[in-house]
Design goal:
Layout: H1 3-17, H2 23-64, E1 67-71, E2 83-84, H3 88-93, E3 99-114, E4 117-126, E5 139-142, E6 155-159, H4 160-166, E7 173-178, E8 184-194, H5 199-202, E9 205-209, H6 210-217, E10 223-224, E11 226-231, H7 237-245, E12 252-256, H8 257-260, H9 262-300, H10 302-310, H11 315-351, H12 358-361, H13 372-395, H14 402-406
Parallel strand pairs: 4-9, 6-8
Antiparallel strand pairs: 1-11, 1-12, 2-10, 3-4, 3-7, 3-11, 5-8, 6-9, 7-8
Helix pairs in contact: 1-11, 2-9, 2-11, 2-13, 9-11, 9-13, 11-13
Length: about 400
């Protein structure tokens, strides 16, 4: 065993044996608890932050993709100028290595009439290429409408908010009026109710078969409102956006969904900044704690330091002894911090014991996301920062003179 580590362990064992009388034993426990608490808070904060971010982004993207390709026009209504699925971008995008999926949609405004109630909504028509796996967790009752087969489907999925406003449930029928010239209406059957907890969508969107809307618009089956594109890695969005944009024809444009819902994504950015501030504060507190404990430990061991120096031990060797002792305290804190922090995250992840008000937080319980690179990064960051913080008090050893240290009382 390394002689410096051996001496550090002997000091720790001696301190533990005198835990009822040694102040350093108590303060060592406080330091371990402080590091453990700091690390646990950071792990939970990052897991919850990513949980919020991933959950909200997934719900926004399930409605709109990462971006939309639409016709470049001055049209500001919910009904875009039609674009053909025979465009080159539709064929090329599917072959790009940074694009995971592409789907088309048709969007149209309408009015629901149910008994004596009426409500203005936006009908979003989906095709057979729609990636249902992105939306399935939002279906709370019934099923998704059918988008394949002959002709068009008269089935729709409405939100919980719309269902409550109009007193509708699965199995009911509604009449959908489309304001156009001449006006048209369709009798539609409710087969499912969704709930994303995002009022931006739940207040106004119902989902239907795209072919039904094409029929209402008198469009050919090659005409749609636009394409929704999903990148394989959303974190590389700004890197891949110019590449895709360079492939567009002159009369088409890209509409990033983050730009369309700035309020939501600005809120997520604010959360990132808050966690960064929390990270800095906790690292400072943990570093000050280990700084204090090493000062106390060295003060109690002044005579030992003097004797070691008197026997020929160099300052660098004495520094290594106390560095090992500080490292031992830090590693204990990291162990307990991981156990507490990850344990709490696991309990919340599987039981969802901590509930939230969906109206304010867009979800029913505190979300947990396992970003292992962040977990590893937080652990290494705590270890590195505290190790650097230990160097300052340990460096004071170089100022200790053997003869004065041995006489110290």
């Amino acid at each position: 065993m390394n002689i410096y580590r051996f001496i550090a362990l002997r000091i720790s064992k001696h301190t533990s044996a005198q835990e009822n009388t040694s102040f350093s034993a108590t303060i060592s426990k406080v330091a371990v608890a402080s590091i453990a608490f700091s690390l646990a808070v950071l792990l939970v904060a990052f897991a919850v932050l990513h949980g919020f971010s991933d959950t909200i982004k997934a719900r926004v993207f399930s409605f709109s993709g990462h971006l939309r390709v639409v016709m470049n026009s001055a049209n500001q209504s919910v009904e875009e100028t039609p674009i053909a699925t025979t465009r080159n971008i539709y064929k090329i995008a599917k072959t790009l290595d940074y694009v995971s999926h592409l789907q088309y949609y048709v969007q149209k405004a309408g009015v629901i009439k149910a008994d004596k109630e009426v409500l203005g909504v936006v009908v979003k028509g989906l095709g057979a290429d729609y990636r249902f796996s992105d939306f399935k967790d939002n279906i709370k009752q019934g099923r998704f409408m059918r988008t394949n087969g002959e002709g068009f489907s008269s089935e729709v999925v409405i939100s919980r908010i719309i269902a409550d406003k109009l007193r509708l449930s699965v199995g009911d029928s509604i009449r959908m009026f489309f304001v156009q010239n001449p006006p048209k209406f369709r009798k539609l059957a409710i087969v499912g109710i969704y709930e994303s907890n995002m009022e931006t969508f739940d207040d106004k969107f119902i989902l239907a078969d795209m072919r039904m809307l094409q029929k209402v618009n008198d469009w050919k089956d090659t005409l749609v409102s636009g394409y929704e594109v999903f990148f394989k890695d959303f974190d590389k969005f700004n890197e891949n956006l110019p590449k895709l944009n360079s492939l567009l024809e002159y009369d088409t444009i890209i509409v990033p969904i983050a730009q369309k819902h700035l309020d939501i994504f600005d809120w997520l950015m604010m959360l990132d900044q808050n966690v960064l501030i929390l990270l800095i504060i906790i690292l400072v507190v943990a570093s000050l704690n280990i700084f204090s404990i090493l000062i106390i430990l060295m003060t109690e061991r002044i005579k030992m330091i003097g004797m070691l120096k008197a026997m020929g031990t160099t300052t660098a060797q004495v520094i290594r002894i106390f560095f090992y002792q500080g490292l031992q305290i830090t590693l204990k804190g990291i162990f307990w911090g991981n156990l507490i922090g990850l344990g709490f995250c696991a309990v919340q992840y599987f039981t969802k014991i901590i509930a939230l008000d969906a109206k304010n937080y867009y979800m029913n319980s505190v979300p947990i996301s396992w970003w292992w690179q962040d977990i590893l990064g937080v652990n290494l960051g705590i270890l590195l920062i505290i190790s650097l913080a230990m160097l300052l008090p340990i460096a004071l050893v170089s100022r200790i003179r053997p003869i004065k240290a041995i006489k110290f009382d």
